[in-house]
Design a protein that fits this description.
Layout lengths: L6 E2 L4 H6 L15 E10 L4 E2 L13 E9 L6 E7 L7 E7 L2 E8 L2 E11 L6 E8 L2 E6 L2 E6 L13 E4 L2 E3 L2 E5 L3 E10 L5 H6 L4 E2 L1 H11 L5 E6 L1 H4 L10 H12 L8 E4 L7 H6 L1 H4 L7 E5 L12 H16 L7 E5 L15 H15 L2 E3 L1 H8 L17 H14 L8 H4 L4
Parallel strand pairs: 17-18, 17-19, 19-20, 20-21
Antiparallel strand pairs: 1-16, 2-15, 3-12, 4-9, 4-15, 5-6, 5-12, 6-7, 7-8, 9-10, 10-11, 13-14
Helix pairs in contact: 5-11, 8-9
């Protein structure tokens, strides 16, 4: 199935809400015990009281909570749905968006039975569907149809006895009789099921469906298990010369993952095997020592700038090489790794006329990503878009290699597309004068 972007989207926000909430393919077999659909926009003080329907879910020890939403702010805690005891503090079951991250918590009389947040973020203003499933074996977060986080904790509404209030867009307890954790933005739908939905069922109820590989990358980011991220390419990935002593895009990404995401991601490793002058031919030939040797979980490939100027590598060979590299990444020992393709940045063809066909190579990479369902970070299109249709020459050191500003642009695009962008982070907020 072809993809036009990193994600299989359900269309614009308005279209998604209208028809009906843009579900990827609702299944008649999926019947919730509670289903509130309004598409209401909440202003940070408004809410919907569903306490009269609490009896449908109060005693559930397992099941699924699903919500479709689009944020317009990134407050620390914003409630999608909360069941609580207004007469006591610290007794609630809540699904929230917390500073962009998904959160599910169960507390009883102040005792935390589970409280988990993703590292991936969903405050980009687009419609997303989150589903939290709880079974006897644990809790799983799904985002846009894909599992992204799992834990062995297994507490649901029945784990917080005494619930008497049920609200969308706020939580209420004795310390906050008027409410707290108010939501800002659209909540299109909230539903609760009395069983744990399968991944396929959740996908059918979601407004958009992420690529399977995108879900795997999100799960790696949200996992506590150490992972190796391998970033390879040519001199641009290498970061040679033209960064002028600043960090390359791979180094910015490393800082975002290995330090800013905190423990245990500090035990992840980001390895740059970019080689100046490299082509897809070179990477195919040296795959064992540039990729396999490091046993990566994710492999990023940005190549094409030298391929386009190499007579022995025409468009057909470039396409074949990319397809082989994707296949080889997925077949790596230990269950394979996730491929990530990144188009090279556009260049000043007046200074580099022998590379004037680079847009065709970026198009080929897009095609391969679509054909093979590979996650794509499209720098080439992004640079032209931000440049108003022209190459932003101020981001290039010599008309071809990004300088320190160009590398920061590459890093921020990569970070944003992988749902790691946080304006409070030093990497994401960095401005190079």
């Amino acid at each position: 199935m072809r993809r036009r972007s990193v994600l299989l989207a359900a269309g614009s926000l308005a279209a998604s809400i209208a028809a009906p909430f843009g579900r990827a393919g609702a299944s008649s077999a999926v019947v919730p015990v509670l289903d509130h659909q309004s598409g209401r926009v909440y202003d940070g003080r408004s809410y919907t009281d569903l306490s009269a329907e609490l009896g449908k879910i109060r005693t559930l020890s397992s099941g699924t909570v699903l919500a479709t939403f689009a944020t317009t702010s990134r407050d620390l805690a914003m409630t999608l749905i909360s069941a609580s005891d207004p007469a006591r503090p610290g007794t609630e079951v809540a699904v929230c968006v917390s500073a962009g991250r998904l959160q599910f918590s169960v507390r009883h009389d102040g005792v935390v039975k589970q409280n988990h947040l993703t590292r991936t973020m969903y405050d980009d203003g687009a419609l997303h569907t989150v589903a939290v499933t709880v079974s006897a074996t644990g809790t799983t977060f799904h985002a846009d149809g894909r599992p992204v986080f799992a834990t062995g904790h297994a507490h649901f509404f029945g784990g917080a006895p005494g619930l008497t209030a049920l609200n969308i867009a706020r939580n209420v307890d004795s310390d906050h009789p008027g409410g707290e954790w108010f939501y800002t933005g659209t909540i299109a739908r909230v539903a609760v099921y009395d069983r744990t939905l399968s991944e396929q069922e959740i996908a059918s109820e979601s407004v958009r469906l992420d690529l399977a590989d995108f879900g795997r990358i999100s799960a790696i980011l949200n996992s506590g298990t150490p992972a190796v991220w391998l970033i390879t390419g040519d001199s641009i990935t290498h970061g040679a010369v033209w960064t002028n002593g600043w960090r390359s895009y791979a180094e910015h990404f490393q800082e975002r993952v290995r330090f800013e995401l905190g423990k245990p991601k500090t035990s992840d490793f980001v390895i740059d095997t970019g080689v100046s002058g490299s082509t897809t031919d070179d990477l195919v030939a040296r795959f064992a020592d540039r990729v396999s040797a490091f046993r990566p979980k994710v492999v990023s490939i940005m190549l094409g700038t030298n391929d386009v100027a190499t007579a022995a590598i025409g468009p057909a060979a470039y396409r074949a090489n990319l397809r082989k590299l994707v296949t080889d990444v997925r077949a790596l020992p230990g269950g394979g790794a996730v491929p990530l393709l990144q188009t090279p940045n556009p260049i000043d063809v007046n200074r580099w006329p022998q590379r004037a066909a680079l847009p065709d190579y970026a198009r080929i990479m897009r095609d391969v990503a679509a054909e093979l369902d590979v996650v794509l970070v499209d720098h080439h299109a992004h640079w032209l878009e931000t440049g108003g249709g022209t190459v932003p020459l101020g981001l290039l050191g010599d008309g071809l290699h990004p300088d320190q500003r160009g590398h920061l642009q590459l890093a921020k695009k990569m970070i944003r597309d992988l749902r790691l962008f946080d304006p409070a982070s030093r990497v994401c907020s960095l401005v190079i004068p």
